[in-house]
DNA sequence: TGATATGTTATCTT
DNA sequence: CAAGATAACATATC
């Protein structure tokens, strides 16, 4: 269930390995997981791997791309004999023989190495798209939280028109991309702002503070390689991240707030689990 | 049995 | 048309 830091981690790892690989064979086990004609891939070469929001873009020859969204339970795992690289949803597929029963797409390269796309819940997808179509997708998205175009002025002016709770506002991809449920809870805790506050009620100063901490938690997550909850799979070829050891609010129900010693409580907001300190987050 | 899960998006309503 | 609310997608686990 990757957020931006997890996706960025996967991209950085695959970027070291995939460029230069040539597709020899493609097996699509679940039609819903792949859009386009996968036969077109055979013979194409990988040029580059990049990220925008939580989308992974594998740039190919012929102005084509494999655009991927892992959604909640997607994984990309590269396999070459003893080498296993990638990431995504932490599950036994990390350590199991591949393909696993969650493998939806299997790619084999001309040098014999392989790439597996696993997705338990099948929310995610891979699409074969031209550069132009990728751009069409990108222009629909608000700038990434890592993009300098996201300034406190920019956010403040948008928030003025929104009365949804601030947590939902910062998770809205039409406003800013890349802040998921975990990092939203943590950023709000550090900023000492209640997730329930209507977006329009935030002062300019509060928006500035919130933006600062959003960037901080996302960058910290990237530095640590993302967040991995299932301890069983930590340490497998370095696939697991480390942010789970530094969570400020998410998953800490009943524990002490690091700001004030108050108790972290859990509520449901917009259908998502939301953790915050009732004492210092106002 | 029922609630929950790190994400989007279609659809309906206001 | 814009913003908000809700369900939906499909599966596993506690």
Structural descriptors:
282 residues; alpha+beta; 5-stranded antiparallel sheet; 5-stranded mixed sheet; 25% strand; globular; DNA-binding
List the helices and strands and how they pair.
Elements: H1 4-15, E1 23-28, E2 34-35, E3 46-52, E4 55-60, E5 64-69, E6 74-80, E7 83-88, E8 103-109, E9 114-119, E10 125-130, H2 131-139, H3 152-159, H4 166-170, H5 181-191, H6 204-224, E11 264-269, E12 272-277
Parallel strand pairs: 2-10
Antiparallel strand pairs: 1-8, 3-4, 4-5, 5-10, 6-7, 6-9, 8-9, 11-12
This protein binds a DNA duplex (14 and 14 nucleotides) through α5.
What is the 3D shape? Answer: globular
Uncertain parts: none
- Mean pLDDT equals 94
> What's the alpha carbon Rg, rounded to whole Å?
20 Å
Number of helices: 6
Helices and strands, in order, run as HEEEEEEEEEEHHHHHEE
Note the gap between the termini.
29 Å
DSSP helix fraction: 10-25%
**Strand content range:** 25-35%
Major sheet size, sense and barrel closure = 5 strands, antiparallel
List the strand order in the largest sheet.
1-8-9-6-7
